[in-house]
Amino acid sequence: MSQADVDPLRGTWQLVRWEIAYGDGRAPTLPFGEGATGLIQYTADGHMSACIARAGRRPLASESVRSAPVEERLAAFESYFQYAGPYELRRGPALPTGLQVVHHVTMSLNPNFVGTDQVRNVAFDAEGVLTLSASDTVPGSSVARHHRLIWKRVMTQQATS
Fold first, then answer.
1. What is the CATH number of the domain that holds 96?
2. Which of 62, 83, 89, 97 sits CB 3.0–4.6 Å from 68 for a disulfide?
3. Residue 149: closest CA among 48, 46, 47, 73
């Protein structure tokens, strides 16, 4: 059995696109805009870390985030998303794509994520591009929404030479 069969997620992935579709028919959105950047890493010891940033984030006026104006700190927080923790794979024919990953969040830029389990459906296309997806509702409403995060594997120097 190959490593990819045991854990096809292991390694580093670069964000291609994050889009959200809505059940009420409104146009899909890109939460961090066109050109958002991000990395998600799955390690051999069973941990993951994900970060996503809006393209074109402005630098702070101060060298230290602690002395930057409140408005700049807020803009920095709102344009960046990060969480990390252990992860587990679930396999089975009853799952939407046959494979799910559960991120057990122990650290996050958003303190409300800590202690949550973020469940993602896992799918690969013919070229090995990874899609992680999940559905929920728009906060404060009953409108369904579906997140699709598309990732491309980062090739290391060793893997490409």
1. 2.40.128.490
2. 62
3. 48
The angle formed by the CA atoms of residues 57, 58 and 61, to the nearest 5 degrees, is: 150
Report how far residue 43's alpha carbon sits from residue 85's, in angstroms, rounded to the nearest whole number: 11
Structural domain count, the chain: 1
pTM: 0.88
Q: What is the extent of the structural domain holding 101?
A: 3-160
Tens digit of each residue's pLDDT (9 = 90 or more) over 122-153: 999 999 999 999 999 989 999 999 999 999 99
Q: Give the tens place of pLDDT for each residue, 92-130.
A: 888 888 999 999 999 999 999 999 999 999 999 999 999
Sign of the dihedral through C-alpha 122, 133, 54, 26: positive
